[in-house]
């Protein structure tokens, strides 16, 4: 049995643990262990790593633990890496890349530590085959990941290859595309499930809509891409093919439940293209309209989930003579009014790095969940648009 670590965007750990628990129900060997900041530990046999790579929408990678020990200097790290049987997993002709992350490590240089890990892997191959693997930082065959805390060092072999948010369908993006696994995590945290109404009124290149539509259709996140484990010496194609053949698409919905719109016609066209590239075979109605002008796409209330634009993106068709802050205040004030007047009964989720958003909307959030988009601290704000919200607002005494 192997130990795995599945990193994810910070703040998504609980959502990932829940998702991994669902994936583990398909396996007799996989177990989910503890959450730590930035990911979830789990264990299982090698085919469980295939399963997680295929099905996890929230994990960034699936890292297999090769070795773990305490350390006091870089030589300890070199010795642990040198002792691992890398040749059991990949060939000397495979290219490698080494990445290191650290939390409170006393070592002075992560670059030097990275170099020591690379040297240890290469020296082991050279000792056995009189030849060293080449380094390729852009498109390596194998990624080796080191993690250091204050006292301990863990070395991992990445089973995923390219990050799992790269689903294999995206050809084009907007200015600031939301990562697919972050969108998937937000969908889970919002409580949305296939069959429920979902609306993204600022859809950009359509990441949230594509993630939701693939879930409706029963398309696993990894169905359209390759993985590093397919190059392992130990790779057995039979269970992998059986796993993929076991995927049964869900029935297509008879009427639309997922809707999107954007101020930019180019973005609407891009979303339409991305839905097609992701294999979506049912209608996802899209409109070109400003967010503050939208109306509910169905009589039945649902979930509105969006990543609002910020700064210059607000002014896609705005007046360039108006300063950005003033434009943002006007935009969010109008959007808040629209939500109060037209979206009674809806649950609204806005994902943003602007922590003053509720004040700009003149709405009181029901919940705020901290997430990180890379290094950027963000919030997923939830607003419950209860019926009568707007009438209560109008009944308040006006301030002079």
Secondary structure blueprint with pairings:
Elements (H helix, E strand, L loop, with lengths): L1 E6 L5 H12 L6 E6 L2 E6 L1 H10 L7 E8 L3 H9 L13 E7 L7 H20 L12 E7 L3 E7 L21 H11 L7 E3 L6 H11 L19 H9 L12 E5 L2 H13 L8 E3 L14 E4 L17 H19 L4 E6 L4 H5 L5 E7 L2 E9 L4 H7 L5
Parallel strand pairs: 5-6, 8-9, 8-11, 9-10, 11-12
Antiparallel strand pairs: 1-3, 1-4, 2-3, 4-7, 6-7, 12-14, 13-14
In short:
With 400 residues, the chain is an alpha/beta fold. Helices cover 32% and strands 21% of the residues.
Q: Please bin the fraction of helical residues.
A: 25-40%
Total strands: 14
Mean pLDDT: 92
Number of helices: 11
> What is the structural class?
alpha/beta
Overall body shape: globular
| Rg | 24 Å
Flag low-confidence runs.
none
Distance between the termini: 70 Å
Proportion of residues in β-strands:
15-25%
**Main sheet?**
7 strands, mixed
H/E series, N to C? Answer: EHEEHEHEHEEHEHHEHEEHEHEEH
What does this structure look like?
The protein contains eleven helices and 14 strands. With 400 residues, the chain is α/β, with parallel strands linked by helices. Strand 9 (258-262), helix 8 (265-277) and strand 10 form a beta-alpha-beta unit. It starts with a strand and ends in a 5-residue tail after the last helix.
Keywords, please?
alpha/beta; 11 helices; 7-stranded mixed sheet; 14 strands; 400 residues
């Amino acid at each position: 049995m192997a130990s795995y670590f599945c990193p994810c965007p910070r703040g998504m750990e609980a959502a990932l643990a829940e998702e991994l628990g669902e994936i583990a129900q398909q396996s007799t060997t996989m177990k989910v262990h503890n959450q730590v900041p930035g990911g979830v530990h789990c264990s299982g046999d090698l085919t469980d790593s295939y399963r997680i790579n295929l099905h996890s929408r929230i994990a960034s990678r699936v890292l297999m633990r090769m070795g773990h020990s305490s350390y006091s200097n870089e030589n300890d790290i070199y010795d642990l890496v040198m002792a691992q049987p890398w040749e059991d997993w990949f060939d000397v002709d495979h290219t490698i890349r080494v990445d290191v992350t650290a939390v409170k490590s006393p070592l002075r240089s992560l670059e030097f530590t990275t170099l020591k890990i690379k040297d240890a892997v290469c020296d082991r191959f050279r000792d056995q085959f009189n030849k060293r693997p080449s380094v390729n930082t852009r498109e390596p065959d194998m990624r080796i990941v080191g993690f250091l805390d204050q006292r301990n060092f863990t070395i991992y072999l990445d089973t995923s290859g390219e990050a799992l948010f790269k689903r294999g369908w995206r050809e084009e993006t907007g200015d600031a595309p939301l990562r697919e696994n972050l969108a998937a995590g937000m969908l889970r945290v919002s409580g949305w499930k296939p069959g429920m109404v979902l609306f993204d009124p600022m859809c950009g290149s359509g990441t949230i809509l594509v993630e939701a539509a693939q879930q409706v259709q029963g398309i696993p996140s990894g169905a359209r891409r390759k993985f590093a484990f397919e190059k392992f010496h130990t790779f057995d194609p039979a269970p992998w093919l059986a796993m993929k053949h076991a995927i049964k698409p869900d029935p297509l919905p008879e009427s639309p439940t997922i809707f999107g719109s954007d101020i930019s016609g180019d973005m609407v066209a891009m979303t339409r293209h991305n839905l097609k590239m992701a294999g979506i075979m049912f209608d996802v109605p899209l409109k070109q309209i400003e967010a503050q002008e939208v109306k509910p796409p169905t009589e039945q209330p649902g979930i509105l989930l969006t990543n609002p634009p910020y700064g210059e993106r607000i002014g896609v068709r705005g007046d360039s003579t108006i300063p950005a802050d003033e434009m943002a205040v006007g935009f969010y004030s109008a959007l808040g009014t629209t939500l109060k007047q037209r979206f009674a009964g809806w649950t609204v989720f806005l994902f943003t790095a602007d922590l003053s958003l509720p004040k700009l909307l003149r709405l009181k959030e029901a919940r705020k969940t901290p997430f990180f988009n890379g290094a950027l601290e963000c919030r997923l704000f939830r607003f419950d648009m209860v019926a009568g919200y707007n009438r209560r607002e109008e009944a308040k005494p006006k301030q002079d």
